[in-house]
Amino acid sequence: MRATAATAVAAAVAAAVAAAATAKTPLLSKEEYERRLERSLQYIEGAAGNTFHCCKEDCHGWCFYGPGLNRFPCPCCNSVNCVNCRAIHDPMNCKEYQAYLVREAEKNEELKQSLNQLQVSS
């Protein structure tokens, strides 16, 4: 009896898969597919631990990183991110950017906080 039920379920699943493969309408709308894909990518990015997210506001680009990765050219927005500084400071190099932060930190509290974060993480 169990084998018959399992066989029936397997046959039903196989039929559903075959029907979906030949269906003229997709199983998910484009919007639903994009929403699920975005959620899956956000989960992977958060769970992996060795990821870097693009610093440009509202950009969804990110990468896995390891030793030696200093720059991340974002494929979504084309910004060049500095992984070490966790900032977009192209065309300045890291030393120029940090000197800029020191100069500007005297005038701007937000930059002062960024500079403090850089010094803590270095």
Automatic annotation (TrEMBL):
Pathway participation: Protein modification; protein ubiquitination
Which BP terms from GO are recorded?
positive regulation of canonical NF-kappaB signal transduction; proteasome-mediated ubiquitin-dependent protein catabolic process; protein linear polyubiquitination
GO cellular component terms given for this protein: LUBAC complex
Organism superkingdom: Eukaryota
Keywords, A to Z, come to: Metal-binding, Signal, Ubl conjugation pathway, Zinc, Zinc-finger
Q: Which GO terms describe its molecular function?
A: ubiquitin binding; ubiquitin-protein transferase activity; zinc ion binding
Signal sequence coordinates: 1-23
| Protein name per Swiss-Prot or TrEMBL | Uncharacterized protein
Its taxonomic placement starts with: Eukaryota, Metazoa, Ecdysozoa, Arthropoda, Crustacea
